[in-house]
Amino acid sequence: MELRDYLTVLRKYWRSITAVTIFGVLGAAILSFFLTPVYTSKTALFFSVNGASSASDLAQGTSFTQKQVESYVQVATSPLVLQPVIARIPLATTPAALAEHVKVTVPTNTSVIDIAVDDPNPATATAIADAIGAQLVTAVHDLSPEGGQGQRSVAATVITPATVPSSPTSPKIPQNLALGLLLGLFVGVGQAILRKTLDTRVRTAADVARVTDAPIIGRIAYDKAAAGRSRFTPEGQDPVGAEAFRRLRTNLQYLDAGQGRRSFVITSSVADEGKTSTAVNTAATLSAAGLRVLLVDADLRKPSLGRLLGLEDAAGLSTVLIGHAQLGDVLQAGGLPGLHVVTSGPVPPNPSELLGSVAMSRLVETITQQYDAVVIDAPPLLPVTDAAILSRLTSGALVVVGSGEVRSPQLTTALESLESVDGRVLGVVLNKVRGESAGYGSYYGRAEPASETRRKVARRAVAEDWADRPREIV
């Protein structure tokens, strides 16, 4: 992942990152609240050498004392010192248990021992520290070797008596909150990156580019208010959506239709990616440019075009393919000048055989000659092979990719199914694009519920197409 990808992850999952970070801070606060406060009392002892009569003797004695101090660190936490301390205070514990609450250190290049005692009770901590200091002085006197005049060679003196601490040393609330913040932020960012890594849904053009080299010829923004709209109309289509399909129509003219054929199969990898609505709007936009367009419902398994457009579905494509009707008998007006529709007709028991039959091949040749553009709505590629079969009879397939609806492996398999039958992928239509990533929001503004102003904009845009009637598909 590049830096831009990480920034995209942070922007996309900022809510979960923030939530996890807040939980981290709250967890640290709760933990700090329930932890028993611990107070630390400190004392310090200085070790000196006795009997030094010259500077040389003093230097040697100082070196000797510093070496001895390292040994007395171990003595300070030994039963020799702690057992009398326990009996003196008294304490209901053992020397080993008490030693876990005593920390003995030696500052660098000194003959000083610092003793720190931790205890939930500040007075007890102070009493233990004082007792250890006093007992260590006695232990040093007993353990130190005698000098030439019968005195001990090393003496220990308490230089810093223990004092009662006024505030606990643990828990360190500011430090704990800071650690909770950092840990929560780390976990939050980690889970966001993990979710991004494990999420194989195709959402953006970059995701599509990782799967296929096929060009993205259209990006259709998601419009919740228009989700149930049945057809493209100048009065009903919002300007953002209208511009998206006009741009799709313009891009179609740059595609090599191959051998002069101008028929397109519109399909998807799985259901609910918006292939049928894309087929309807594409056909309507082509007809709005002055072209004669035929929209065919070739989904002979779960047809929806007739219901979506409110057309008769008792006879249609299946009826023509089995020879019970002629093409002219099942043609229906699509609601816009130049737009005709052939619904699916009755659902047959053998859809794949009908769509791969000679009758279907001849029908595609006939309608391609009669119309400027033929748009065929086909079933998804993964459940059945119908769309792959039709892609060989037409100029190729336009694969609709519903943003967030399909996963990369599914899209890869769907495209491979087209390649396996030598079908041609003309391009990809990225549908249901959230936000302004469809590319038109910054010009028109965010899509809002239909208003009179927006309807006027849409009417004017379509009127311009009708005034200039080029044959955009060559």
Explain this structure.
- The protein is α/β, with parallel strands linked by helices.
- It contains 19 helices and twelve strands.
- It has helices spanning 3-12, 14-34, 55-76, 79-88, 95-99, 122-143, 173-198, 205-211, 239-252, 275-288, 305-309, 317-321, 327-330, 351-355, 358-370, 386-393, 408-420, 441-444, 452-467, and strands at residues 39-49, 102-105, 112-119, 154-160, 216-221, 263-268, 293-297, 332-333, 339-342, 373-377, 396-402, 425-433.
- The strands form two sheets. It has an eight-stranded mixed sheet, with helices on both faces.
- A hairpin with a 6-residue loop joins strand 2 (102-105) and strand 3 (112-119).
- Residues 440-474 have low confidence and may be disordered.
Q: Low-confidence parts, pLDDT < 50 over ≥5 residues?
A: 440-474
Q: The biggest beta sheet, please?
A: 8 strands, mixed
Overall pLDDT metric: 83
If you compute it from the alpha carbons, what radius of gyration comes out, rounded to the nearest whole angstrom? 42 Å
Assign an overall shape.
rod-shaped
Q: Total number of β-strand segments?
A: 12
Query: Cα distance, first to last residue?
Result: 42 Å
The portion of residues assigned to helices is 40-55%
Beta-strand share of residues:
15-25%
Total of helices = 19
Specify the structural class.
alpha/beta
The largest beta-sheet arranges its strands as: 5-12-11-6-10-7-9-8
